[in-house]
Amino acid sequence: MKWIVKEINSYNLVVWKNGKGKSTQIHVEPQGMSVQDPFEWRVSSAVIQQVGPFSAFEGYTRTLILLKGTKIALFHQQQPNICVQLNYFRPYTFNGGWDTDSIFQSQCPAATSGIPFNSSFSSLSVSPSMSQGSFTNSFTPSQTPTMLSPAGLHSQQTPVISSFAQTESASNFNNIEDDGVNSPVIPHHPRIPIIVQPHPKDEAHDFNVFTRDSVCDHSCVVYEFGEQTLNPIPQQPSAIKTSHRISMMPSGPYKSSSMVFYSFGGDVKIHYEGMEGTYIECKLLNGHSLIIQDITPFTNIDNLVTVESKSPPNHQHHLIVVNINYLDNPKVQQPII
């Protein structure tokens, strides 16, 4: 088992695959590969100042986590009737090869024209299904919503969302949850094109994970520190969550795993108890990351690490934890075009 602590000055600035922006590459495996190479997995962050089409990563699964700034909405050509509105620290997993377009939520019809539209929300826990190319996020539309097409969103002319619904009201998302609140039925007026106006102050900060489907898969969880937790003792003050225990055990028939810890908004201490009284410990400052490689089912008895906030008790910050699991029987890699 190998621990690698990475500071901000060790990250690399990388041009997006489509050449329309840059991201901060936190780590890539094998090391030294570019986004044009058939890398196995990659984690990065980016500041999105201009929305538009996403780079396509055919044969990869991608998870996006919105960290701060203006919220964004995604459109997939392969799911033309769904607009996915991202919430802060809610991982959203999708097929990296899909034709994906984006728009700031402040530019969405509900914010600019007074005509609202449906949205769907993803949750903290994601579980990609590699063989089928579909992914289990926590939103499940019970009916087909009003179509919102991203066509023409980013042309040289003023972008327009095509919103010509067959019915006068949008369908209801009965099973969509956003912080435990069901999305309501939202009326929509048919056959009115909605003009999307740019906003000069829009900017989004995100965190991305890519894994090559033929080699490995991944899952993401976001842990929060400084949040209030209910005290089981009546009339006692609520406790402040300052630590978490996280399992390192691979959750399937994997030959080995890697983990990525990314601290955002505060400092955190990570502690691992080995055998015969040995231990490994490190402290991550805001924006720093820890890569743990070569984790096997025989790493140790309990396979747990303890993460503890080193920021003031009432200071809320987050720790993104990514589990990357290498398949026991990797598939034959197809050429990447």
State the shape. globular
If you compute it from the alpha carbons, what radius of gyration comes out, rounded to the nearest whole angstrom?
Answer: 21 Å
Given the helix and strand composition, which structural class is it? mainly beta
Helix-strand topology string: EEEEEEEEEHEEEEEEEEEEEEEEEEE
Query: Order of strands side by side in the largest beta sheet?
Result: 2-3-4-16-5-8
Assess the beta-strand content as a share of residues.
Answer: 35-45%
Tally of DSSP β-strands? 26
Largest sheet: 6 strands, antiparallel
Description:
The protein has 2 domains: 153 residues, no CATH class; 112 residues, Jelly Rolls (Sandwich). It contains 1 helix and 26 strands. Helices cover 1% and strands 43% of the residues. Strand 6 and strand 7 form a beta hairpin. 33% of the residues are buried. It starts with a strand and ends in a 10-residue tail after the last strand. It is mainly β and 337 residues long.
